What does this fold into?
Amino acid sequence: MNALPLVAVAGNPNAGKSALFNALTGARQKVGNYPGVTVERKSGRLVLADGRPVELVDLPGSYSLDPASPDEAVTRDVLFGNQRGERQPDALVIVLDASNLDNHLRFALQLIELGLPTIIALNMVDLAKRDGLELDARVLERELGVPVIETVAVRRRGIAELQCALDDMISSPVCGVHEHVRSDLIHLQRRAREIATSAVISETPVRRWTHRLDSVLLHPLLGPIILALIMFVMFQAVFAWSDAPKSWIEAGVAWLSNQVAGALPGGLIRSLIVDGAIAGVGAVIAFLPQILILFLFILLLEGTGYMVRAAFLMDKLMHGVGLSGRAFIPLLSSFACAVPGIMATRTIDDPKDRLTTILVAPLMTCSARLPVYTLIIAAFIPNRHLMWGVGLQGVVMFGLYTLGIAGALLAALVLRRGVLKGGGGGFMMELPKYQWPSLKDVVIGLLTRAEIFLKRAGTIILGTTVILWALASIPQARPGEKQSEISVAGYIANGIEVIVRPIGFNHDISMALLPAMAAREVAVSAIATVYSIDSPDERAGATKLQDSLQHRWSLATALAFLAWFVFAPQCISTIAVTRRETNGWKWPLFMVGYLFTLAYIAAGATYWVARGLGL
Amino acid sequence: MNAPFQPDLISLDRLPIGTKGRVMSIDWASLDQGEACRLKHFGFDEGVVVEPLHLGPFGRDPIAVRVGRMTVAIRRNHAGAIHVSPLPR
It folds into this structure.
């Protein structure tokens, strides 16, 4: 097979590499992982002026060819042709931040020494001008010996010129890379500084925008207040803005399942499609709006450069429990859903910091727990007014969130003292200049996330839902028998019940715990199904379900059930994403083990304390 | 190579905000390999001018430092390994 010529886009973090990559390839991108490592591989296709297609790959941002993180190791290995799952690039586009040349040129010097056909994109020249810095691209060209094109990737300026230069370059023959590249960083740095200085035409000292903004956003008092406000708006948005689209999706799913139910004859097949596939996948897709809104905020915070500031503000507090400031955003995201939260840990360099963050992320109260909490609280906690407009139900809800956070901090502390002791690369981060992200980059980012999420809903979640449906429906109960007891799931529930009876759980709960492994909120519908299957006069419905619960469960059992859900890792997606992000079964199994242990202890303690108090 | 004795040499974490300092020596041995590598990547080197710009809100940690044309955040304990000579304003 004659593979397309491969052009690698390389450069320092914050050089505007991804924006340039987006400008060159548009939305036709493929996002995957390099085999064996959790480093994202982003590639896209570019058609040159003469119609020849070229594959473009966006290499992880690096400071040099001496890697300080797994991402940087991939960059080095790809460039030397040693990376599994990637062929050796035929040409290079090096992206430089025009206003940070003395640093970025160091990596560029190393890359040029590789001897591949190379073009330099002198990016963000507009921001450099804003800061009073004018550069001579011709001087750079002369000093470096490769073509230099001025670009503003987020505004698509210079992209056409860059494509022309690529056109010329791909035509020239390639003759292998030089394996011996100088790695004397200090020497390279000094040379980089010389070249950078020689390229400056004029430099007017102006008070830089970024510095002015930072005086406010990193202010010791204002900074944390602004961060808290931004977080507040973000949570409001995730819950408030998603209401309407969520109800549309739910209505759509309901319509679809009605249509299908009407079109198919009754029986196992209809039940499989309607109760299994459509209901299961539909319940999960309903979370798409929340996830997209959350990611919109995260992309904006990242694109503007604020995200790093949030990490800066929170670092000291996170450090107290053995995490780094970078863990703040992934943990925050986990309040919506642990899956994007765990995916966001990729920005944490240190492997142990990252692993700790992944392991505690499921303790943040995700939105899937809300339906469970809401139902149980409404059924068992009296709607009593305490004081100043604060109700008992609200206090219990707040308590459950707090319990999750406290559990996460405590778990992080214990993990860092125990299995994940040592290491800790500290906190060293570049604070990039503030800038407006381009709409296109944000949209591409959102589409990519939506695609990943929907793919998972279509595969893993669909699969587990169908399996669980099968377990609950086979064999079919004959008249006089209860489906919930005669089915395979019923027998499994009998087994589970033996384990969970000491912490106050009954057969209904044991039955619900199994399907709730797919997604926590399924517990609610599972309990409803058990009650509606067993007693046809009791139709499933929120108010009705509340009444049934009050009759069948003691308050101690209900409280134990809530405590269980604070800790239990009842979510296949989280386990699957942990497996993917940690490359193996060791850590997801560890996570499942420690979280179930915590859940068991918490539920048991709650049950017996409640019993002791006579509840 | 012994640096000449300089009475006004202080560690970077003690340089006041908004005061520039020239890096005279970096105690590479006190940093682990990854940390040292990162600092070099950021452009920390003998002779470079640095300037602390902002402090973290809790315990005045981490420190945002301008080095060359970049602003980077490092923790106080790492800043302690960098010795600077304050420059007159």
Summary: Chain B touches chain A through 31 residues (CB under 8 Å). The radius of gyration of chain B is 12 Å. Residues 33-41 of chain B form the longest helix (9 residues).
